[in-house]
Amino acid sequence: MTRIAVVEGDGIGREVVPVAAAALQVLRPEWEQLPVELGLERWRRTGTALDEADLEVLRSSDAVLFGAVSSAPNGEYPSVVLALRRALGLYANIRPVLGGGADLVVVRENSEGLYAGRERIEADRACTERVITRAATERIARLACRLAAGRRHLTIGHKANVLAADRFFLGIARGVAAAEGVPVDDAFIDALCLDVLRRPGRYDVILVENMFGDILSDVAAFHVGGLGLLPSANLGERHTLFEPVHGSAPDIAGRGIANPTAALRSAAMLLDHLGDTGAAERLNIAIEEVMARGLRTPDLGGTASTLEFGDAVLAALEKRG
Ligand code: IPM
Ligand code: MN
Fold first, then answer.
1. pLDDT tens across 42-69, in order?
2. Is the C-beta atom of 186 inside 6 A of ligand 1?
3. What is the pTM of this model?
4. By the 8 A CB rule, do 28 and 270 touch?
């Protein structure tokens, strides 16, 4: 029996995940969905944002569908998103950007860089170490090469002109690409952010370390109309978690206007990853159909609510049987 842990989280996560979970329910009614409450609301209610029992549920499921979690108002608990990536060993963050002249995939190293957790604040000085290891770089580069082998080519984004850690990253990633026979080029991350906007068609798979990937994926979202549309897959050796690239968006939360497309597409990535490529395709086609009819949430200039858009996608799915 396939078990999917479903984490709505906070803010608009509570609005968009139910839509995506309903789509999964239509496509795979026999899959068990296990709701797990995590994040700020949970912390307010119980004093805990995430605990070992939650992790057990997530680890024992076949995949996690995740919404978004707000960070603690004054750092009362560490980032739940980062804790999950660490606890589940989710070393790769795959962020496809498809539309508006772009057909590219950002492959973001998800475990180290500035997110390695090596930081300290002193009286007059704060320091966050950017850690790049050979093992993590080889692992993510191999995954990026596997992806690129089935597509066109690989670009490595970096800042090797000034940072030693990036010369290290670039050297290792290039070596992996050469060994795997994948066509590869590279670019400075700052110039790459601009060029991805100008000439998206030049890019296919883009490999970057953690924070560069965080920034580059938001930049690339420009081509598809913003963060309301970008899905992601967090992959590890044993666990997987699928989540919109956007956060909990407290500014629009509770108004029922969030775009559920990123969450729906994350559900499609989940289906695809669990081997149901047919259902993934049906879901993506249903989203396209609804968009083609001109139905839009306010982030894309329309007036549809989250539920109106979601219901239209569900209706399109059901109609096609
Ligand atoms: C993302 C988010 C996260 C990140 C935050 C919420 C920790 O911005 O998934 O892109 O920085 O990775
Ligand atoms: Mn981000």
1. 999 999 999 999 999 999 999 999 999 9
2. no
3. 0.97
4. no
